[in-house]
Amino acid sequence: MTESSVRGTKPRKVQPGGRDAKVPGWMGPAGLIMLSVIPVVAGALRLGELAGDAAVTPANARFFATPLPVVLHIIGASLYGMVGAFQFAKKFRRRRPGWHRMAGRVLVLCGLVAALSGLWMTVFYPRPEGDGDLLAVFRLVFGTAMAASLVLGFAAIRRRDFRRHRAWMIRAYAIGTAAGTQAFTQLPWMLLVGPLTEIPRALLVAAGWIINLAVAEWIIRRP
Q1: Distance (Å, rounded) from C-alpha 212 to C-alpha 125?
Q2: What is the CA radius of gyration of the chain?
Q3: Which of 60, 96, 129, 135 is least crowded, fewest Cβ atoms below 10 Å from its Cβ?
């Protein structure tokens, strides 16, 4: 006998949207896609600029001089952010395990292309105004961390170590999609203070990576 039958009352029903209702499984991936839209749009504008007859300026001259690294970076990062969001849809992933494995292989390749091309650009591209040594160090550290996380995650799944595979892939995705978060860390300063100078820009860009990694570690460690 249930407690409700002893009391002579009907079992309580959980109403949709009530406090017992779970968060829909699509909300996480949808949020990640929305966050990824920011760098995807910026990348698409950059590709259009390179493909068209845009004027060469001090801000974009490095891209016109050597376009391949930035083109690879934009394509790799865009696919990584948009397709990778669906790996966080638990029901979709479980219903289509074959898709999960196939997409995972593609995402490792796209992520490595994005990370390694970003490292190349940091080392070899001339720095635009406002990008100093501190920002270059941050880009090298987090770009290397992303590439290493992807390699460790791939190695873990080859050993059938699903727990470590999940953890490393979440960390890699957090680093790889930080461009959307960085837009939000920099925007308040630009609105309230004005144009970003070298040190504040470096710290606010780093804040985007740190915020994403903090959320990633919370997801990894939660029950």
Answers
A1: 26
A2: 21
A3: 129
CA distance 88 to 221: 15
Question: What span, in angstroms and rounded, lies between the C-alpha atoms of 111 and 105?
Answer: 10
Phi, psi torsion values for 51, nearest 5 degrees: -80, -25
What is the distance between the alpha carbons of residues 83 and 197, in angstroms, rounded to a whole number? 34
pLDDT in tens, 31-81: 898 989 999 999 999 999 999 878 898 889 999 999 999 999 999 999 999
Match 């395990």 to its residue by tokens. Answer: 97
For residue 3, give both structure tokens: 């407690």
pLDDT of residue 25: 67
User: In residues, how long is the chain?
Assistant: 223
82 and 23 in contact (C-beta within 8 Å)?
A: no
Task: Copy the structure tokens of residue 137.
Answer: 């160090």
Q: How far apart are CA 194 and CA 204, in angstroms?
A: 14
| Residues 200-217, mean pLDDT to the nearest whole number | 96
Are the beta carbons of 36 and 177 closer than 8 angstroms?
Answer: yes
CA distances from 181 to 11, 102, 174, 187 (A): 45, 28, 10, 10
